[in-house]
Amino acid sequence: VKGPIGLLALQGDFEMHRQAFARAGAETRPVRRPAELAACAGLVIPGGESTTLSRLIDRAGLREPLRQFGRERPILGTCAGLIMLARRLEGEAPEHGVRTLELLDCEVRRNGYGRQIDSFHADVSLAGLAEAGGPEGDGGALAGPLFRGVFIRAPRIVGVGPGVEIVAALGDEPVGVREGRVIAFTFHPELTPDPRLHAVFTRMAGGA
Ligand code: GLN
Prior knowledge:
By secondary structure, the chain is of the alpha/beta class.
């Protein structure tokens, strides 16, 4: 599918993603209704608050359309967006809060860094993501290109299924994962000027 990258615009920091894709040279459009998905080459589920996001997805009638979209076209989730994509949330009964879309085979702990350090910046390794190595796939940068990760009440990935690649790591902990067309990060790449991750997703979505 050729077309813009859809930004799920129900809640959260979709506007910052719009600006980040603009820096990466990609066109975007907001998505608030199921019919708006049809034209999109890919979709971003932004950071925000996953309990609210989950409720608003149901209210907009977007749950099944999003699940269907994720079976066919690329989806990027950041922070609360990663939570929404996960197959399982650790220790949470779905009837009490977030119902995830179950498009990414991993288990996630919400607010996984606790209150003491609920927000921080740290250099993340993208060694698992060769495409992020540089503008021309610069071999020299592939050994361990770092990305400035902004973590805000971030979730933690506590388990991944066999089909899931680790594409970003903080120490030995996964902070970015990819399973086929679905890619997600626990941090906020839209809040740093580095366009590499938005460029990677733009390529996943066919160039947009
Ligand atoms: N803590 C939020 C949640 O559980 C996610 C925070 C974020 O997206 N920055 O939904």
